[in-house]
Amino acid sequence: MGPIKVLTVDDSVVVRRIVTDVLASDPDIEVVGTAANGKIALEKIAQLKPDAVTLDIEMPVMDGLETIREIRKIDRRLPVIMFSTLTERGATATLEALSSGASDYVTKPANVGSVSESMESVRQQLIPKIKALVPGLLTAAPAPVAAAPARPATPVPTRERAPGGKAPRALVVGSSTGGPEALSAVLAKLPANIGVPVLVTQHMPPVFTRLYAQRLDKASALTVVEAADGDVVTPGTVYVAPGDFHMEVTRRGPQMVIKLNQGPAENFCRPAVDVMLRSAVAAFGGELLAVILTGMGSDGKLGCKAVAAAGGQVLAQDEATSVVWGMPGAVAREGIADEVLPLGSIADAIQRRLGPAARTAFPGPAPRTTPATAAGTPSTTSSRSSTNPPARPPAFRPAAPAARPSQGRW
Predict the structure, then answer these.
(1) CATH assignment of 4-137?
(2) What burial letters (b/e) apply to 65-81, b meaning 16+ CB within 10 Å?
(3) pLDDT of residue 408
(4) Staple 216 to which of 73, 183, 224, 308, CB 3.0 to 4.6 Å?
């Protein structure tokens, strides 16, 4: 196989030059063309047959969102990496692009002092993603995820477990590239009365995780929030690790609470799946169900080994339905997964393995009450049915968290 052929699409001449120069510096990549808007890009895709496309979101004539939708009408397998800004508007558009079929995204350098620093930022983020996505060219894009075509599966070992054991008291999920849509597909199939808390680490930067949690909350029967420091962990709630913070869970009396920190990145990531899993093992012992979905790298492998060693259960997404079979592949090849499953089967496996015992996992905070309109009897109000969500402890946020773009970050 020759070099990976890339088409770069951006209305900024400066950005096109930076991306082109960065990619051209890698001997495994060849920039076969550039385009200033989506309309030109569609013409060049047909002419040049690139192996991957980098696509800006905000462009004249045809923007990135319209372009990715048009690309997916004609080619559902072509890896497309969006260029986004670390703003609420950029994050919202990027999440929409992912749900429309984009393979992944990188963030544009912001407030960078020199062209060389901008190029290094792009190099660290973009090149590893291109190389990870192109070997998976036969994997369908994640829109819709469930329609990914089957391909020959790589045989992987699964571990044998003694019958019996306690039902899990928590579900912990890790994901990265392709994870936003994969996780959405899993959570959409889980019932509101799942009976256990769900802890999620998806490699994403700040701003993105808050908006992503809001999107998941609207699409799921479960309550989904971006985790805040001091949150009391409750069954039926999904806690998404905030961008640039490791998320841990720890015991406080009879309750479990969320702890956030900005410790060193692990596996080039913050938040890191391994950090979350280690803390979950310390808090819950072997009464855990860990699920590793599609993603680059091997984040989650060591944590899953700890889960398995403690007697917990591990599920991994299979190669055929993963956008990138890095994280779940690392777990599967280690032989620590109880099952390696296609994405469409994971929600059913989760419910089967949680079992009825999970319904009384551990005490959470007392439900909020509001004065009744009659007889002075208090009534319980659900946080999802109330227009005003329950008060949450203030999130732990430093004044200026330091961003650290890297190959495994998102």
Answers:
(1) 3.40.50.2300
(2) bbbbbbbbeeebebbbb
(3) 39
(4) 224
